[in-house]
Automatic annotation (TrEMBL):
PANTHER family: DNA POLYMERASE III SUBUNIT DELTA, REPLICATION FACTOR C / DNA POLYMERASE III GAMMA-TAU SUBUNIT. It comes from the Bacteria. It catalyses: DNA(n) + a 2'-deoxyribonucleoside 5'-triphosphate = DNA(n+1) + diphosphate. It is an enzyme of class 2 (transferase). This is DNA polymerase III subunit delta'. Its EC number is 2.7.7.7. Keywords: DNA replication, DNA-directed DNA polymerase, Nucleotidyltransferase, Transferase. It comes from Paenibacillus plantiphilus. InterPro entries: DNA_pol_HolB, DNA_pol_III_delta_C, DNA_Rep/Repair_Clamp_Loader, P-loop_NTPase. Residues 243-323 form the DNA polymerase III delta subunit C-terminal domain.
């Protein structure tokens, strides 16, 4: 896929296409942005464009080098991923060894490093020495969710290419055109930063079912405490949905936000649009501050889970707090 075919990151696309068109390709790039924002897809598209022999500012998809790339036969492209939880110095040494060999006929060698912030200090220092004395034929593309987590000395020797979270409206339109269910899409675009992450959420087992459970919990949590507790036990903790408690909480936050959207007259922003009749009758059961408190209680439950409180206990305590107002 060419860079022009990728949507949602126009600034990154402009930076990279200008570099190719002007002949000012840097020896190293730092693609920094949230998970799901399309960094890896853009890295692959940029790499293909760099190998392309058509002379344009993007991959043509037709030349020999483009066809080799698309079929996974580009020997001068190297991918570095964490070995376990980190990228280790031996991986950097092996990469440098590979890059020292003669090209297989292309003008460049390119390496893409995923989760570059996981490099050990020794690995980062080894890479730094390589970046300080760059080979003209080698281009590095470092991918990270947090550019500030990289060594300042590495940041200073790379060109930053920022990736922004995609706007929910952009993702909604794109995913709807791809044929994904509208109700699932409306929720997923508020849970992820990019299209690929949204697709993963929508396609995972139980997402639609989890959405239905959250609707029931949302309706019951305010006035029918016993029913809410029963739903949580039977539909969540006695099923596989109990394995994704953070997803449940994230959807529940969207449910309470919908009440605020309705009160403010922002019906176009409502996620659970199929529940608009119920929402219209109950959104004013609490003032905006009351719904904000529900959101804060839900976020607090998520923090408690991360602090190793059992999900069942955290959600039971959440339902009690919401009932109490």
């Amino acid at each position: 896929m060419s860079m022009a075919e990728l949507t949602g990151q126009p600034k990154a696309q402009r930076i990279l296409q200008y570099a190719i068109a002007s002949g000012k390709v840097s020896h190293a790039y730092l693609f920094s942005g949230p998970q799901g924002s399309g960094r890896m897809a853009m890295a692959n598209a940029f790499a293909q464009a760099l190998f392309c022999t058509s002379g344009g500012d993007d991959a043509c998809g037709q030349c020999l080098e483009c066809r080799k790339f698309e079929h996974g036969n580009q020997m001068d492209l190297h991918l570095v991923e964490p070995d376990g939880n980190s990228i280790k110095i031996d991986q950097i040494r092996e990469l440098q060894k590979e890059l020292s060999y003669r090209n297989s006929g292309t003008q460049r060698k390119i390496y893409i490093m995923q989760r570059a912030e996981t490099m050990t200090l020794q690995a980062a220092n080894s890479l730094l020495k390589y970046l300080e004395e760059p080979q003209s034929s080698v281009v590095a593309i470092l991918l990270t969710e947090n550019g500030q987590a990289m060594l300042p000395t590495i940041r200073s020797r790379t060109q930053l290419v920022p990736f922004m979270p995609l706007a929910p409206e952009v993702m909604l339109q794109t995913l709807a055109m791809e044929g994904f269910p509208q109700l699932s899409v409306r929720a997923a675009v508020h849970l992820a930063s990019g299209l690929e992450a949204c697709r993963v959420i929508i396609q995972q087992n139980g997402f639609a079912e989890m959405r239905n459970v959250v609707i029931q919990l949302g309706k019951d949590s305010g006035t029918r405490f016993t029913a809410a507790m029963l739903s949580a036990h039977q539909q969540v903790f006695k099923t596989s949905l109990g394995e994704q408690p953070q997803l449940l909480l994230a959807l529940l936050v969207l449910w309470y936000k919908d009440m605020i959207h309705f009160q403010a007259g922002r019906q176009e922003a409502i996620v659970f649009i199929d529940q608009i009749d119920w929402i219209s009758k109950h959104a004013f059961a609490r003032p905006v501050e009351g719904w904000v408190n529900c959101i804060e209680h839900t976020l607090e439950a998520g923090k408690r889970m991360k602090a190793h409180v059992s999900p069942q206990l955290a959600i039971e305590q959440l339902l009690i707090r919401i009932q109490e107002g």
